[in-house]
Amino acid sequence: MSDLVVHTLAGGWGMSSLSPFCLKLETYLRIVDLPFQKIVDATPFSGPKGKAPWIEHEGKKIGDSGFIIEYLESRFGCDPNAALSASERAVACAMRRLIEENLYWTMVYDRWMVENNWRSFRDVVLGKVPAPIRQLIAPLARRGVRRQLKGHGIGLHSQDEIHAIGRKDIGAIADFLGDKPFVMGATASEIDAIAYAFLANIMNVPIDSPVKDLALKHKNLVDFIARIQTRYFA
Ligand SMILES: N[C@@H](CCC(=O)N[C@@H](CS)C(=O)NCC(=O)O)C(=O)O
Fold first, then answer.
1. What is the DSSP letter of 22?
2. Which of 7, 16, 21, 45 to mutate to test the pocket of ligand 1 (most atoms within 8 A of CB)?
3. 81 within domain boundaries
């Protein structure tokens, strides 16, 4: 059994994890073919940074998907970005920030703040929390997320503005992917784990949003998700 323990948040609606950062790490591990044990936590708070995912390995606890990947690369020598040039790495880094630091928050808004979506999402995202406690913590958790959205800045915009921001990001990803099989070209690299995890969490879940509607119109994005699923999750 692998001594790499990955703490993640629950899946649902056919997704291995409804946390895109957790799904990113799991996809990355599948791309580089590193075995791991998966522990599904009820909340993200037990990790060293109070967020999921986090890992335990050789007595160390490491939080943050980006730092975890850096650790895995230095400890196990995996490097799916090895074939990329310096300028390709720069583009992949910018694309990562677009997805994780901007598009992500439009997804959070749609799940937590849009009333109809929240009603179905809360029972799935808090599914591992016992039902009576869930009733109590759901509004508190939602208040915390509202604060995060405001702190980020995106929560200060109107719904239409937030959706316009998300749609612009989707358009940029679709245009950059073009007709390539993977984001940076012929082979999968780290950015594919990121793009897949976030796009699938927008496109393949029953959360209504104009951001999702636009993404589903891009056949290359739909095909990209199917490609990653077939290759790494079959
Ligand atoms: N930069 C972190 C972000 C992780 C993150 O935001 N995880 C979310 C779940 S998708 C979380 O744990 N949120 C709980 C919170 O912010 O309180 C990473 O790359 O791992």
1. H
2. 21
3. no
